[in-house]
Design brief:
The chain is α+β, with helices and mostly antiparallel strands and about 60 residues long. It is built from three helices and two strands. It has a two-stranded antiparallel sheet with strand order 1-2. It is globular and about 30 Å long.
C-alpha cells in the first residue's frame, strides 16, 4: 500500500491458502480495496492506527493524502 502497488491486494487469493485464512469474509476487506482505488500516483498513505485486540484481532487504519 505504501508503494502504491495494489495488484497483490486486489488478487490476494492468488497468494495461497494463508491469504484465504487471513481474510475469511470480505465485509472488512472490500472497503479497503475501494479506498485504495482512490489513491492517485504519488499520493501519500499513512497509518493512523495499528494494533491488536484480544490478542488475535489485528486492526489497522489508513489515510490517503
Amino acid at each position: 500500500m505504501l508503494r502504491g502497488e495494489h495488484a497483490g491486494l486486489i488478487q490476494y487469493l492468488g497468494n495461497g491458502k494463508a491469504a484465504a485464512l487471513a481474510v475469511p469474509t470480505l465485509d472488512h476487506y472490500l472497503p479497503m480495496i475501494y479506498a485504495i482505488a482512490l489513491q492517485k500516483k504519488g499520493e501519500p498513505l499513512t497509518f493512523f492506527h495499528e494494533g491488536f485486540q484480544h490478542g488475535s484481532i489485528s486492526m489497522r487504519g489508513f489515510q490517503i493524502g
